[in-house]
Amino acid sequence: MAKRIQFTAQGGPEVLQWVDVDPADPAEHEVQVENRAIGINFIDTYVRSGLYPVPALPSGLGTEAAGVVKRVGSAVTRFKPGDRVVYCQAALGAYSELHNVAEDRLMPLPDAISFEQAAASFLKGLTVHYLLRQTYQVKPDETFLFHAAAGGVGLIACQWAKALGAHLIGTVGSAEKAKLAKEAGAWATINYREENIAERVSQLTNGKKVAVVYDSVGKDTWEASLDSLRRQGLMVSFGNASGPVTGVNLGILNQKGSLFVTRPSLYGYITNREELEHASNDLFSLLASGAIKVEVPEQQKFPLKEAERAHRSLENRSTQGSSLLIP
Ligand code: NDP
Prior knowledge:
The protein is an alpha/beta fold.
């Protein structure tokens, strides 16, 4: 038997249950991974709450982890028992001691990167990779706006921007988070609980505003994000931490300066093995060189069975950087 977190109805953090399961044998092209560290992502709260649908109930939760290969399916060629690996995928169920993952979704984990570092940075780092390198290619010396800069994705974005020589203006919810974002490489911060975002962006850019805004906060920042863009700027709406953006009249893009909007997701950018390997290798080299560091505070390493408590802290904005579940 193995333990996992599951839910039989979508809802608040209290729907998460700690149960025994009989792990299935890995299918032909699957690898059974003994998870050592599991990444917690805000998307897990959307899946649990019902904002995003699930294929069936009861459902597992979680989409990324790092661990050791325990068993392999009969047609698996790339991995063998004992290998260190990391994965992220759209399929749910990573909040578990053992998880069967398609061979194609796994990456070998370089020795220089610990299980905790990997689980704290894989999905989030691949996200920053496509946002800053593909959705819009941020250039050296370019100034741009990135919301929730002291969150899991945010602290990686601050460091990646610094490595690119770009100027990230990060929004944050407290003075302590502002300090963290600055230390990670943000060029400037805006406390959006106290300051007017668009006015501050305008001041910081001498009235020019920015060509791209990365917005994962959603409902609460939508309008301010558009107001921070210069003519023909690009709004990258990639998350809903404060709730989804709905009921938009497209005319607003015309009124605010012929703007562009995109609503991307990681699995629209990583669609095959080649794309996974390319993005992972970029991320691994930044992690191995120390250009990107992920340090998870001890109080944000939750025992797997305490996923409910972990979700409460993420949703009430008391976390900084990444959080982990430890089986
Ligand atoms: P974070 O660690 O960034 O946590 C979310 C942060 O959002 C909070 O810490 C908080 O920071 C800020 N926030 C602002 N308003 C609210 C609110 N009303 N409720 C809760 N939090 C709020 O999470 P992740 O790093 O896991 O993810 C960041 C975002 O990126 C999420 O929206 C997620 O959905 C999105 N994402 C999108 C992907 C994609 O491909 N589209 C892939 C991965 C993540 P503060 O206190 O500073 O305001």
